[in-house]
Design a protein that fits this description.
- By secondary structure, this protein is mainly alpha-helical.
- Among the domains are: 109 residues, Tetratricopeptide repeat domain (Serine Threonine Protein Phosphatase 5, Tetratricopeptide repeat); 111 residues, Tetratricopeptide repeat domain (Serine Threonine Protein Phosphatase 5, Tetratricopeptide repeat, Alpha Horseshoe), CATH 1.25.40.10; 86 residues.
- Helices cover 72% and strands 0% of the residues.
- A two-stranded antiparallel ribbon has the order 1-2.
- The longest helix has 17 residues.
- The radius of gyration is 40 Å and the shape is elongated.
- The protein starts with 11 loop residues before the first strand and ends in a 14-residue tail after the last helix.
Amino acid sequence: MVDRNRHRPGVAQDMDRFRILRSIPPETGPGRLGGCLLAVVLVFTAARDLPAQNPAEDLKFANGLFQQRRYDLAAEEYRKFLDANAKSTAPEVAGATYALATCKLFLGQYAEARKAFEDFLLIDPDNPNVASARFRVGETSYLLGDVEKGAKALKQYLDEAPADHPQRDSALVYAGDLALRQEKPRDAEASYAKSLAEFPKGRLATRAIFGLGRAYSLQKQHDKALEQFRRLKAEGGKDWSERADHQLALEAIAANRVDEATAAVDSLEKQSPAGAMTADARYRLVDLLVANGRKDDAANALAKFLDVDPPTAVSIQAIARLAAMKLEKKQPREALDVLEPTLRKVAGQPASAGLLHQAAEAQAMLGQKADARKLYERLVQEFPADAWADDARLRAAEIAAEAREFAAASKLIAPIVADDSKSQLAEDARLLSARIDLNENRTAAAAEKLARLVEATKRADVKAAASYQLALAYKALGDNDKARKVLGAMTASPAPSASSEPLLLLAQSDFEGGRFAEAVESLNKYLKQDSPRLADHALAWLAISCWETGKPAEAAESLARLEKQFPGSDTRLPTLIRLGEAANKPETATQAAQWLRQAADLATDDALKARAFAELGHALALSGKTEESAAAFAKSAELTGGATDAGRQASLSAARVLAASGRDEEALKRLDTLLSGEAAASDATLRKARLMRARLLAKTGKFEAAADDYSLYAGKDFETQAEGDVPAENRPERILADWAYALADAGKADEADKVFRRVLENYSKSATAAEARVNLAESAWSAKKYDQVGELLGDLAGETRPEGLPDTLREAALYRAGRTGVEQRKWAEAEAFWKRLIAEFPASVLAGEAAFWRAEIAMRTDRPDDAIAILEELFRKPPQGDSKPPAWLVTARTRQLQAMISTKKWEDILKLTDRLKQEKFGDDSAEFKGEANYASGRAYQAEARFDEARAAYQAAIDAGGPAELAARAQFMRGETFFHQKNYRESLREFLKVDILHDAPSWQAAALLEAAKVYERLNQQRDAADLYERLVDRFPKEAAAVEAQARLRSLKPTASRTDAPAGK
């Protein structure tokens, strides 16, 4: 049967199979670190959780499968046993339940493992393993994202388990992690602090320090949090140093400590100038510097992002912000100096759209409107669907219209003014189109457009501007009555002053053109007029303009004035939504959520309400409020009925938030609902949902269903749909590999291999191809197709390591190539692979096993001295961890003793075996105990200490090891008596070999020696009988040839009663 413990990132192997455990994605927060630590815990507690042997055949078979680490098959057998004994209360039922739970745990089927551990606790509450089972319930709940249940189980474990229980250190840290997820930082603080008090140097100490710092941080106890993060930096070593500095920076920023935050960021930059955490901390520092009036320092911090090459999302955001600061200070030339180098680097990429827009603004500020127009048009041409595109179209059209290039201006805004346009700027563009008609003397057409716009628009600003232009058009047409009617509707009463109206129109023009700084100035002047008629619109524009120019406090103040003075104004809703969308980024997500929640409450139109809830979902997610975020997305989807793309996107976002918070089952239900609709399967949102569901199904152990989803996702157009700039985890070859793993875990090995071959055929140069080759090599190995193993591994295990090959795959390839060489008896090739593995991965858990195989090869090639040297080096640094040594290490000790026997190092053998007995090494291995005693016997025999030799040989027999070993020891007992010329006792021992043991070679040898003893005793007939017995029973053994020869030489007249000689 093919072993499906496939190679994936992460390592845990034994001498017969190499298994790479999958990692928990980084976005899962504490769960990822918990998952990595669990993998280590499972490796070192596997032996401790082994079930006791039971004489019942079915249970015995299950236990055997467990011991061979065939956990999937063992689980099936334990389930059969439990189903057959459902009403039994025998101790074996509790043991089998515990073993079943352990199998499910090793298989990553955490929900089933938890259920089995819970059943065990009910079946046998007094069992010695109750504490471990209680811990496992908490641990699996932790991994399943079941926060409440996990916290409850771990608390019970910590309250009831002995203080020295081996899982207490993990439980304390897990309890802290869960408390953080429950937003109970005080409880988290208590757990982490207790962990550090009880295990100050424990393996999870650094993680506990980190968690304690986060707990203090969430309680806004900045001094205590900073103390822990400093401790983390001092004690955590290289692996934690960067993260510690990152937390120090964030905490100092939260505490408004500019100098300390700056120092932490400087330290981060020294460690990792281009690191993601460095970039994040530096960017956050900018807000602190600005808030403390140190704008020049903020600009200098942002300027460091200019050196990032290639630019990243954060660096591009920082450069855009630096450019905005330059533009705000009326430094357009300096803004262009910031923007142009980055624009050259990201030309053609979507991220360049916003930068192009800023560069165009700068050119416009310099008075270079033609250059500004080129940049706007370039943005439209390269990114026609970008969020900035319509604004760029409108601005370019305005510049063209100013230059009286009306045809070009009309062409630019044509997509926006179309009847089916959904652009937010459609009405602005239609207003400009009407103004163009006015300028080209198409006055009647302009009036018609303006009248429709005034009638249709719900925006007061557009209505006012269109009405004003419409009045002008009617005047130009000579229809003064209509003009007066329009103006009357505009003014209502009293009529606006002659000075305030142009001022507001000027502010409107600046606002609509994105010239927010100029708009702020005009709007403030307008609002100082006596009783400005459109003050609510002015306040709305002022709030947005202040935010866009980096003045959040002034924006909030303007919005508050709008809400207080004009609570019923229809400008409130669009202003709240626009401000919320603009603030929807990590550093201002809380403010965004506040505005968007108000917008959702205020909206009466379902579409606007859905939009507000969708944006609110994003803001809450950025704020870490995952449950509220999921609810907001769900509300958005409900309002749209899920039938629109916006509704489907909202449902998908809700599922993502649920999954990110560890609520996988809820996320799956959301995805099931989304995918059960009638929308086209090719819909991009549904494809994303299907891929997400496939991954969640695999994560939660529903492998067959996951494989089905992957199959639907990876259709005939699969590869072509993935062209372009796609994240690594969504590349076709990665998705195919994940599909193959799901098939493998579902027990469909042949289908999995077909998909891996597809990866190899279509993506032979990718890193995933190497992963496919290693997996296919495992299948070939399991099928004993060793030549195929060599072909697949090829250069992966070659002398020169392929560039970019991950350590896990390189180590896996070397291991499997070495084992294949051993199976093919290609000793030189195999030894080269083992040497390579040791040289490249000296600290790996496999390095020791590789040394063992080198020694084994030395023994097979008649180099016992080399084997001894290799094994002595191995045992100077034996594998650490569980008290029980791995099986191969016990075998290595056996080979060491055999090599020492071969080189006749008798004194060394006795010293070694005495020491091993004192250490109780291999006490649970009957074979090793037998071999060790046998080696002692050979040493005693060589020194003519025959009584001690026989005692040692008898101990080897009594150890209960393999029949061959027992027969060999029995034979040597006969040899000791023979050397002492005690022929009768020698005869008894040789005959015992034949009668008591099933080892043909030794039985044949013993019969030969027994016959020789009879000859020595002059009992020729007895000797002849034994020679005949040997030849009849063991004709193919070498001893049979000598027996035939000796049989022919015996005297035919030999008597059975001949007197013995020598006694």
